[in-house]
Specification:
The structure holds 2 protein chains of 2 kinds. Chain A is an alpha+beta fold. Chain A has 2 domains: 1-40; 42-93, HU Protein, Chain A (Irregular), CATH 4.10.520. Chain A has 3 helices and 5 strands; from the N terminus they run H-H-E-E-E-E-E-H. Chain A has helices at residues 3-13, 19-38, 84-90, and strands at 42-45, 49-56, 59-62, 69-72, 75-82. Chain A has a 3-stranded antiparallel sheet with strand order 1-2-5. In chain A, helix 1 (3-13) crosses helix 2. In chain A, 25% of the residues are buried. By secondary structure, chain B is an alpha+beta fold. Helices cover 43% and strands 29% of the residues of chain B. Chain B is built from 3 helices and 6 strands. A 3-stranded antiparallel sheet of chain B has the order 2-3-6. Chain B has a two-stranded antiparallel ribbon with strand order 4-5. In chain B, strand 4 (63-66) and strand 5 form a beta hairpin. The longest helix of chain B is centred in the first third of the chain and has 20 residues, at 23-42. Classes of the chains: A alpha+beta, B alpha+beta. The interface between A and B is large, with 47 and 54 residues.
Chain lengths: 93, 100
């Protein structure tokens, strides 16, 4: 399923809404999650899962081709943990 | 980092603010977006949201695990797990937003 198919499903269920509003609704939800994580916030959606930000410490990396050492700076990466209900549903419980 | 936790309520508040539907309808729509994504995943589909990320379901084989405290061997049954791969855009925005 891709974004446009998700939008279509929601549009089909809500014939009273304009297509462009449904697009805006779906886009707003994903945009809000990214904005929250960009501030370092968590987004916890019970039953579905939680989005959070993990810190990766600075380290000395190595160029695998030349073997040269390179300094890799500290960075922050997005992380998703599946919610209990969805995990159970995936396993037919 | 501000270390706040957002919930469904914050997402429906954003929909309410951006689209101007009632709060009640906004929260129902947030719920149906999550429901459709969950249903697709449970059906074994991959959910690919451009400029956000990809959720995919992977099958894990059975293996023998060990209780780290007691050392006791326990069978781990085959199971399906969900993985999320953030898009480049999400990674970039999260990295930029959290760099000091």
């Amino acid at each position: 399923m891709i974004r446009s198919e998700l939008i279509q499903k929601i549009a089909d269920e809500n014939p009273h809404l304009y297509q462009r509003d449904v697009e805006k609704i779906v886009n707003t939800i994903f945009e809000e999650v990214i904005q929250a994580m960009s501030r370092g916030d968590r987004v916890e959606l019970r039953g579905f899962g939680a989005f959070s930000v993990k810190k990766r410490n600075a380290r000395t990396g190595r160029n695998p081709r030349t073997g040269e050492s390179v300094a890799v700076e500290e960075k922050h990466v997005p992380f998703f943990k599946t919610g209990k209900l969805l995990r159970d549903r995936l396993n037919g419980k | 980092m501000s270390d706040k936790t957002l919930t469904r309520m914050d997402l429906s508040e954003a929909v309410f603010r951006e689209v101007g539907l009632s709060r009640n309808e906004s929260s129902q729509l947030v719920e149906s977006v999550l429901d459709h994504m969950s249903d697709a995943l449970v059906a074994g589909e991959t959910v690919k949201i451009s400029s956000f990320g990809t959720f995919s379901v992977r099958d894990k084989a059975a293996r023998v695990g060990r209780n780290p405290k007691t050392g006791e061997e326990v069978p781990i049954h085959p199971r399906r797990v969900l993985t999320f791969r953030p898009s480049h855009l999400m990674k970039d925005r999260v990295a930029t937003g959290n760099s000091k």
